[in-house]
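Work Package 3 (structural annotation) set out to generate three-dimensional models for the target panel prioritized at the project kickoff. During this period the team completed the workflow that converts sequence records into discrete structure tokens, so that structures can be stored uniformly alongside our sequence database. As a representative example, we reproduce one entry of 127 residues exactly as it appears in the project archive.
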Amino acid sequence: VQLQASGGGLVQPGGSLRLSCAASGFRFAHYAIAWFRQAPGKEREGVLCISVSGGSTYYADSVKGRFTISRDNAKNTVYLQMNSLKPEDTAVYYCAAGHLILPWASVGSAVSEYDYWGQGTLVTVSS
């Protein structure tokens, strides 16, 4: 089982980045996929989640209107488009696979609900 996150880097405030998460070794199309992030000294937090079909998406309030999640089941890949980035978005971003639990914001975004994790990619927002 592997989830390979990529696309992180250094970006100026107000800029954009697109992260990718490529999956292998499990039935990707049967799992909801979420992005989490962990800033230095803080707990890992759920940021967004997308359902198996891609028809439903869930967002943390901190990223609504700025971040978008999408998936391509034919390519076993999930994408995170991040726009209007802020310094407080600086963190290591992880993708994870699990079974969708609702309500997502209060229950489904818990780290313990996810079975498989990627290694993380660092996003730094700084001028």
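The first helix runs from residue 104 to 108.
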